[in-house]
Amino acid sequence: MRVLLLGGTTEASQLAETLYHAGIDSVFSYAGRTEHPVSQPVPTRVGGFGGLNGLRIYLVDNNITHVVDATHPFAAQMSQNAFDACSALAIPITRLERCAWQAQPGDHWTHVPSIQTAVAALPDAPTRVFLAIGRQNLSAFNAKRQHHYLLRLVDQPMQAVPLPHTTVVIARGPFTTNNDADLMKSHAITHVVAKNAGGAGAKAKLSAARRLVLPVIMIDRPELPITHISPDTETVLRWLGHDALRGV
Description:
Layout lengths: L2 E4 L3 H12 L4 E5 L13 E3 L4 H11 L4 E4 L6 H14 L3 E4 L12 E4 L2 H7 L6 E5 L15 E6 L12 E5 L6 H10 L4 E5 L8 H9 L3 E4 L8 E3 L2 H13 L3
Parallel strand pairs: 1-2, 1-4, 2-3, 4-5, 5-12, 6-11, 7-8, 7-10, 8-9, 10-11
Helix pairs in contact: 2-3, 5-6
């Protein structure tokens, strides 16, 4: 058995630890979007595969027998490529998928299906927005360039931020409700835009918004391929053990 773990999330790192201690031969794959990714106890590769065909070649050349997709819930293209490559090669795949966040009493969420609809949901009058979506889709918010945007990023941007009015904070989670509430108050934030990534590491901003009675524009997850779902590391281990016993 040799497992390819497509990572980048907190849960992926936890699974890497579990696989290491279980003595399961594994390779951890980072997309390469952060400058200093978290080190892992198993062999690690960084960077893309070169599309679907490149991933198929990698799986064959590296004798991968099982794939665990533990990428970010919004890494839709990677999840699709992983599903398609595994289907073509008859390699078992499971997706380690954390539950989406659910609105709680006191929340003021507006659900939207995409980045573009999140932009449209912002008011027209200039305001101050905590844009908690990473750095990949910032340019879309030029359609509402009258706002001031607070950006929290893992790495210092290598290029100029493509928005005219921004404040950039460099920080790596997990975060706390108190710290996020202080951050929002100190920057006079009036709106929060977030992707529904789920998990505990970035949930504090939602609790802080609830405490401060701030509206949240919540971008719903994209549709992902229908495949085997593992809600936690224990389920992944059982899935691997079941297939191993069958000699798959």
